[in-house]
């Protein structure tokens, strides 16, 4: 008469879903980044310290690269320390407790939290996706992800140091980045339904040391590569080839360079300032769009939020960055 309770296979299912090994996902990028750093720095040192004769342009190129890296690297280290501290010690539900409950004000409030949570763009993607998974509205998550890398105090300070002759650039960058991030978030208000569950298995809670080492290695690789490209454009390409004479084309060109170079926001101001022939609004566009859209960010957002949301965010970010840069430049410059 008594029926035997059915045996459930939930543990097997759980084990099946836990099967993918994370080390294979984590270790390979770290090794490739180390190789990229060693190769890039090796090229610089060979050109800079080699006793064999090199052309004057080659010597000028290596000097510019080294000077840019030396200027920016301390800020990269400091930014990695702060980013690692946020990732390792910030409670996951912290932002949810302090953000306003209203739908409208949550977006600018989440964007403004970037001032108090200094994270680079690499850290902002997993932090934002984790906040959305824990109940934060998708629009607020997008606002934080896009704004935090460009408006945090370290980025503002580095921009001021790079543009000491025109300190208003730091204010312009903050304003344009904040406005652009909020505009994209409002436009994407319903664009992130169930896709946040996608990133649960990609990011585990790392220790401070793990996060710091990973961020320094990855950021330095992109910094060195970006400085090499910027110096090459400055030294080897004639000034007449780049469209600096046309404001619209120069803005487009600098935005494309920012997306390709993928430089960390703590250091991109020094690279932007090195394009002395580019108009100031074009340099500002470089700094505004870079923390929002670049090659590495598209890949990270694709894995965290899915292709549909990523494509929408990327397209809107480019338009919003260009529009915000134009308006802020007209007002402040």
Automatic annotation (TrEMBL):
Residues annotated as transmembrane: 31-50, 62-90, 110-132, 139-163, 169-188, 221-241, 247-272, 311-332
Primary subcellular site in the record, as a coarse category: membrane
Membrane topology: Multi-pass membrane protein
Key words, A-Z: Cell membrane, Membrane, Transmembrane, Transmembrane helix
Localization annotation: Cell membrane
Any one Pfam family match given in the protein's UniProt record, by short name: ArsP_1
GO cellular component, one term: plasma membrane
Family classification: Belongs to the UPF0718 family.
Full protein name: Permease
Organism: Corynebacterium aquilae DSM 44791
